[in-house]
Amino acid sequence: MLVYKFGGASIKDASAIKEMVKIVNQCDDNLIIVVSAMGKTTNRLENIARLWFNGKDIETPLNELIDYHQNIISDLFEQNVPDNLNSIYESLWEKLRSTPSLDFNYEYDQIVSIGELLSTKIIASYFNILNTKAHYIDIREVIRTDRNFKQAGVIWNLTKRFALERFTFENYKIYLTQGFIAASTNNQTTTLGREGSDYSAALLASACNAKKLVVWKDVPGIMNADPAWMSDAQKIDALSYQEAIELTYYGAKVIHPKTIKPLQERGIPLIVNSFIEPQKKGSFIGNVDDSKSTLPVYIRKQNQVLISIRPKTPEFLAETDISHIFKLLSDMHISVQLAQMSAASFTICIDQIEYMFDPFIAELQEHYHVKFNDNAEIITIRNYNNESLGKVLKNNDVLIEQKTRKTAQIVRFMEN
Ligand SMILES: Nc1ncnc2c1ncn2[C@@H]1O[C@H](COP(=O)(O)OP(=O)(O)O)[C@@H](O)[C@H]1O
Ligand SMILES: N[C@@H](CC(=O)OP(=O)(O)O)C(=O)O
Fold first, then answer.
1. Would residue 166 count as lying in a domain?
2. Which of 59, 275, 307, 320 is deepest in the core (most CB within 10 A)?
3. Is position 291 within any domain?
4. What is the pLDDT of residues 316-370, one digit of tens each?
5. By residue range, what is the domain housing residue 387?
6. Which of 13, 213, 226 is the pocket-test mutation for ligand 1 (most atoms within 8 Å of CB)?
7. Which residues does a 6 A CB cutoff place in the pocket of ligand 2?
8. Cα 114 to ligand 2 centre (Å)
């Protein structure tokens, strides 16, 4: 049995969906298909959620979202739109007619999850009119999480049990379900963090002990840099689980960072293939020895906030201060991407975050002098050498530089 995951780009319009069906038809094995929201739907829904939460007008973005999906529906089905697709926006309308609670993250999940529900309902209906029958599963009945909305933590025992109960392959050869979304044990919709569909697919592959997980992307495989950033990026044919974990940890956006662990635990290979050239070999991630690789790999993590924290007294920062700062970060669910200590100050890099940023800074300012700059990026180079460092540094000012034997990290202002 295999798991295939199709991201937003691979189902962004009717012709992409038709290509996806061709890829599915090439597979002779039992299959679970995990799909994301279509195109940039999640971004649109995030925007709608924010506007609605702040009492702003949502008519224009809502109409754009509906028109986008309606165009895909009419291109796919022409005059024969199935009846069940007439009511697919109802839960969204109902939500947007209600009054928001005070919990943005909760409301965000209720709205943003609709992208995956729309895409799977449309694609399931399309499969239904073809010879390729795919059985629709609402993944919220399978992937169970805590109530940490927007970044929910998976309850693995329950998830594994429900996955084995639902994906039996007794009556069906192909299942179709959503990535990214899940439900808490009291049945509230949650999400696993942006771009979390790769992770959903890995959870299902691991629970059902798949032969492999194939994620279909708009790139030839995992490259030694984002090809949208470095046009001379090269495909990496094979990577170890550990190296893949490192790259995603440092921010290589091609795979969600939580994807590898569930696969590694069961020795399930991950294949990153191109949906544009599906016949070509992509990247293989598995039990590979790449410890001797010298190919530099460049990772750029943008939209970072660099925060410098100094004591208000003439004292140096002590361990109790560091502990206090990390406790605050942990309580506010803020992850530190990089930290550096000097005699005078403690500097951290965090992702730009909504809503929690101001309270975090305000709390810090009660105890420390705080300066921040929200226009930073972290460049990480695995297997760095002078040439690769020179390639990214050029004329930029370096705000922080850290090196270990294998990895160099540089914080600098974002390039425009
Ligand atoms: N090292 C890398 N190798 C390949 N692609 C990368 C890398 N780093 C970033 N990317 C970007 O990741 C994108 C594919 O990932 P993503 O958009 O999350 O896929 P999807 O949403 O289809 O699952 C590519 O379009 C590419 O710009
Ligand atoms: N649709 C969600 C989940 C996801 O993983 O999407 P994609 O596979 O298109 O990156 C998002 O955009 O965050």
1. yes
2. 307
3. no
4. 888 899 999 999 999 988 989 999 998 889 999 999 887 778 899 999 999 999 9
5. 297-413
6. 226
7. 7-8, 36-37, 42, 115, 179-180, 194-197
8. 12
